[in-house]
């Protein structure tokens, strides 16, 4: 059974850092794109960062220069290093994986930035 397991969320003070991880398992096809989305309180889900199988990355303007996405292809694992966190980064962060035959979502991990 396909599964995306996220970890690494938590409570952090403004200016702090967190590293999210997402491990994909049970997906029987090559994963073309792995991404992180987030949904803040009262907001729609938005793309935060994406990485393609060739290593090309894309970031939302709000996180450029602060967040870094990376991927361990051999392990079908994607990471999101988040630095200089701001209160507006508070959200549930979701991992997404896209293959040629469909997409998969994780259940989300809460990130709260507060003093």
List keywords for this structure.
mainly beta, single chain, four-stranded antiparallel β-sheet, seven-stranded mixed β-sheet, 115 residues, 57% strand
Describe the structure.
The chain is mainly beta and 115 residues long. The protein has no helices and eleven strands. The mean pLDDT is 94.
Brief characterization of the structure:
Helices cover 0% and strands 57% of the residues.
Q: What is the number of helices?
A: 0
Beta-strand fraction estimate: over 45%
Structural category is: mainly beta
* Rg from alpha-carbon coordinates: 13 Å
- Give start-end ranges of low-pLDDT stretches: none
Order of helices and strands: EEEEEEEEEEE
Fraction in helix: under 10%
* Apparent shape: globular
Biggest β-sheet description: 7 strands, mixed
């Amino acid at each position: 059974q396909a599964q995306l397991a996220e970890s690494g969320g938590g409570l952090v003070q403004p200016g702090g850092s967190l590293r999210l991880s997402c491990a994909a398992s049970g997906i029987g096809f090559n994963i073309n794109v792995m991404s992180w989305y987030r949904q803040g309180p009262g907001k729609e889900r938005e793309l935060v960062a994406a990485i393609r199988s060739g290593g090309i990355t894309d970031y939302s303007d709000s996180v450029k220069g602060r967040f870094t996405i990376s991927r361990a292809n051999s392990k079908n694992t994607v990471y999101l290093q988040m630095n200089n966190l701001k209160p507006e980064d508070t959200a549930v962060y979701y991992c997404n994986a896209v293959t040629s035959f469909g997409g998969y979502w994780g259940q989300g991990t809460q990130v709260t930035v507060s003093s």
